[in-house]
Amino acid sequence: MPIGLEAQQVRAIFFPKRKQFTFHRINMEYLIPLKSLQRESVYSLLDAGLRNNLRSIGAKDEIIFSLRPQLEGVAGRILAQGLRLAREREVLREQLAKQVQRGFQVYRAEVEADLANLKLSEALALERKTGYETVITAEYLLRDAVATNIKNYRAHFELAWIYLTVLESLAEAEHHFQIASRYALEQGDVLFAHFAKRHLADACYSQNKFGEAVEHSLAALSTVETDLESRYEHIRYLAAAGELETATQKLSALVSASPVYYVQAQAEPDFRQHADVRTMLFELRQQRVDRITHYVHTSWQNHPLARLALPDQIDPEFLFRQTFKQHIKVMAHLPYMTLTARENQIAALIVDDSQRRVLKELNTRSKSYEKASEKKRKRWLWVNKTGAMLLHAAAVLLLACVLFFAARYVADLAGFGTALAGSEAVMSLSLMVLPLLLAGLLLIGFIPKGAKRLFYKQLELDNTAKFINNLK
Fold first, then answer.
1. What is the structure's pLDDT at 177?
2. Most buried among 159, 237, 246, 277, by the most CB within 10 A?
C-alpha cells in the first residue's frame, strides 16, 4: 500500500476528534498484526505522530532527529507486543478449533469472528466509503459472534475497538472492553486483559470519566510494570482527574527514563494547561544543563591546560569562561533529547573548543608580534642596506688592491715594475678597507630596539602552541 494512503487511513485512528488531534500510540499494537506492519512502518508512524505533536505546539520538528535511537527502541517494543498479540490470536483460534466438537455454535462463532477480522482489515485498506460499509459488516459479524459465544473475549475486544476508533460509540466501547478484560482474566490471558484495560481506560477518559480511567489504568499497571506507554497514559489520566502533584512526580520519573515522553508531554493538552507540569519540564531540562555544566568544569579542572602557565600573561581560565558562555547560549536552544543523549559529547566538545581557543589566542599573538617585528625591521632596513653597501665597497677596494699588487709583482718580475706608479695612493685606499669592513659588519647586523624582545616572545608562543598540540 502507498505510504500516503496508509498514513491517511491510519490518521483517523491516531488522531480522532476525542483525542484533540494529539498523537497517541495506544492502537499501534493492534494495527501491527492487523495490517502486517514492519518495524520500518512502525518507526515511520511514530516519527510522523511526534512531528505532528511538535508542529501543534509551534516547535521545530528537527528535534525528532535526536530521538532516533529512542524511537527505534520504542518501535521494536511495539512490534514485539503486536507480534505477541498475533500469537495469542492464533492460540485462541486453536482453542476454538478444539471446541468444535462441543457444538455448531462455537464453530460458527470462530468462523464469524475471523471473517469479521478479515472485513476489518479490508476496511483499513480500502477507500473510506467502501471501508465504512465493510466496518458495519464487521460490526454485525462480531455482534453475532459474541452473542453466540459470550466468553469470546477477543471478539468483544475487536467490537469495542471498532466502536472506540471508527464508529465513536464510546459507551458501547466501554461496555465491551470491560467484558473482554474480565473474560481474558478468567481464562488466564493476563497480558491481553492488561491490553484491554488500557483501551477501557481510554474509553472512560474520552467520556470525561477521569476517575474511572485512573482506576483502570492503575489496574493495567499492576500487571505489567515495565510498560512505559501504560505509565504515560496513567499519568495523563491523573492530570486530567486533577491529581497534579502525583502526576507531576510520576511524569518526571518517566521523562528521566525515556526522553521520548518529553516531546509528548510538551504537546499533551492534559499537561500544557497546568503551570506546575510546565515548570517541572523546564526544571528537568535545566537539570540536564546543570549536569553538563558540572561535568565540563570538572573536566576542565582536570585538564593539563588549566594548570599550564602560558606566556604573555594569557589566562586559560578566562578563555575557558568565554568559550563556556558561548556554549551555554547554544545549549539554551538545544532540545531536551539532545542534552540527554549527548551529555558527554557536549561536555567534551566544550573542553576541546576551549583548548582550540587557547591555541587560537597563542597563534594570534604570535602573528601580531611577527607583524610588529617585521614593521620595525622595514623601518630600519636602510641601516642594514647601508652596512651591505659598505661591505660591498670594502670588498671592491680590497679586490682592487690585491689586483694592483699582483700586477706590480708580475711587472717587477718582467723588469718594468717602475711603470706602475701610485703605490702610496693604493696603500692609503687599502687602509680604508678595514674601517669600511668593520662598519659594514656592524650595520648589517643591526637589530632595532625591541625587535629581539618581540622575536623571543613569538618564539615562546610558538613553542607553547606546539607543546599544547602534543597534549591532544
1. 92
2. 159
For 105-165, the three-class secondary structure string (H helix, E strand, C coil) is: HHHHHHHHHHHHHHHHHHHHHCCHHHHHHHHHHHHHHHHHHHHHCCCCHHHHHHHHHHHHH
Q: Residues 198-231: pLDDT tens digits?
A: 889 888 988 888 888 888 888 887 765 567 888 8
Q: What is the CA radius of gyration of the chain?
A: 43
All cell numbers assigned to 469: 598540540
Instruction: Pull the grid cell for residue 349.
Output: 566538545
Of residues 355, 350, 358, 352, the one with CA closest to residue 291: 350
394, 436 Cβ separation under 8 angstroms: yes
Say what the alpha-carbon torsion angle 277, 278, 283, 289 is, to the nearest 10 degrees. 140
Residues with Cβ < 8 Å from 350, sequence gap 6 or more? 296, 323, 324, 327
Rounded Cα distance between 265 and 236, Å, is 9
Q: What's the mean pLDDT in 233-262? A: 84
DSSP 435-464: HHHHHHHHHHT---TTHHHHHHHHHHHHHH
- Label residue 185 by pLDDT band (50, 70, 90): confident
463, three cell numbers: 613553542
Helices marked H in 302-342? 316-331, 336-341
Cell of 135: 466496518
The Cβ of residue 287 has, within 10 Å, a number of other Cβ atoms equal to 13
Q: Alpha-carbon distance 35 to 395, whole Å? A: 100
User: 170: helix, coil or strand?
Assistant: helix
Q: What is the pLDDT of residues 392-419, one digit of tens each?
A: 777 777 777 777 677 767 766 766 655 5
If you search the block for the grid coordinates 455448531, which residue do you land on? 104
Given a cut of 70, whether residue 60 has pLDDT beyond it is no
Q: How far is CA 240 from the centre of its chain?
A: 31
Say yes or no to pLDDT of 4 above 50.
no
Q: DSSP code of 421?
A: -
Give the pLDDT mean for 419-428.
Answer: 61
pLDDT of residue 383: 67
User: From residue 433, how far is each of 384, 444, 452 by CA, in Å?
Assistant: 18, 16, 30
Cα 10 from Cα 48, distance rounded (Å)? 11
- Which region among 105-109, 154-158, 164-168, 355-359 has the lowest average model confidence (pLDDT)? 105-109
pLDDT mean over 258-279: 79
Instruction: Report CA 171 to chain centroid distance, whole Å.
Output: 43
